[in-house]
Amino acid sequence: MLWQGNRGLYALLQAARHTGPITRVPRLGWVVTDPVLARRVLNDHDRFGMNGEGGVGHLWTQLFGDEMAQFFGGARHAEVRTRARGLFTEDAARDLVERSQGRHHAELARRLAAGGTVDVADAARVLAGRMVADLLGLPADRPDRAYRDLFGAGERLAGLALGTTASTGLDPATIARARAIVDEITTGVPRGYADGGPGTLLGRCRAMGLGLPLARGLATLLVIAGTETGASGTVRTVALLHDTGQQRALLADPSLREGAVREGLRVAAPAPVIGRHVARDAVVDGRRLRAGDRVLLLTYLATNGAGPFDVHRAYVPETRQLWFGGGRHLCLGAAVARTQVARMLSTLHSGGRPYRIVSRRAARRVLVPSYAELRVTLARG
């Protein structure tokens, strides 16, 4: 799947398997494969930042301007996270997923119980889009096609970053294409910003005095983070449970579901690479990193070093939520992502029988490896 989805990422991961925990690679910068060192970098906000060459903030600033750079690197970031945190608690995540996806999960369960097949990949894309729209405060009564389009636009925008492994600088033509996609993604944001209540992210942006341009940037960021990575983690966990034959253990003991979700996200690592910019000289594991260098944290290798997918695996502190980042930039929607995966597993197992995959097709040329199609039906007997 990695080879079909993102060949550059696949080649990088294959080469990095034979390096040490931190290695300097020509044209790429420093490559980190050790989970403890990766977390050390993510937690050192004085020396490693998101703005500047190598950080995602550098990409976003080119699209949305200096206000976005201030968000990624300043006190405003902490304020936004503090004010928005109530939307992303464990309880809020369960309410959000049930409100935006509940009746659609019921329909998926009905189709499976009737002997039909379900394309989990398509369902995950649509459901992730519905969840993001609800969270932002955008209209929720649109047909599935609208959410497929939203996901597709996010995928196209993320796809523009496929060539940024060596540099996060974008040429004018790429910036123009990206901004056109952003306009498509955020067409409903001005109204959501004006009318959204405190239970929506856009409403809270307005209440905090964040301008509409920054709100558009945050909405776009949420679309990418909330759909691409969420759908990938969900679908790949479904496939892992099937391929390893471990879903019967989950059916026999539903208390294993939390571990299954954690294992699925660990092995799939929906954010397989995290970039940082070296803001000040630093020493990591005896290596001197100079200001201006870039760092690639290969979270896919760092988390998979613990071993293959295993629903019985005990909690591994070295890799805890590393697939969601770390430090003050730890993914705010981590609870939402876990809840989405758990809700899909609950739906597929609602009939008390295991599912089987009848066909699958990997997504091609995508930033986040996933399945374009994963059709399942319930096993007989």
TrEMBL record:
Q: What SUPFAM superfamilies does the entry give? A: Cytochrome P450
CDD domains under this entry?
cytochrome_P450
Top-level taxon of origin? Bacteria
| InterPro entries attached to this UniProt entry | Cyt_P450_CS, Cyt_P450_sf
Instruction: Return the PROSITE patterns for the record.
Output: CYTOCHROME_P450 (PS00086)
What's the family? Belongs to the cytochrome P450 family.
Q: Which PANTHER family match?
A: CYTOCHROME P450 YJIB-RELATED, P450, PUTATIVE (EUROFUNG)-RELATED
The name this protein carries in UniProt is Cytochrome P450
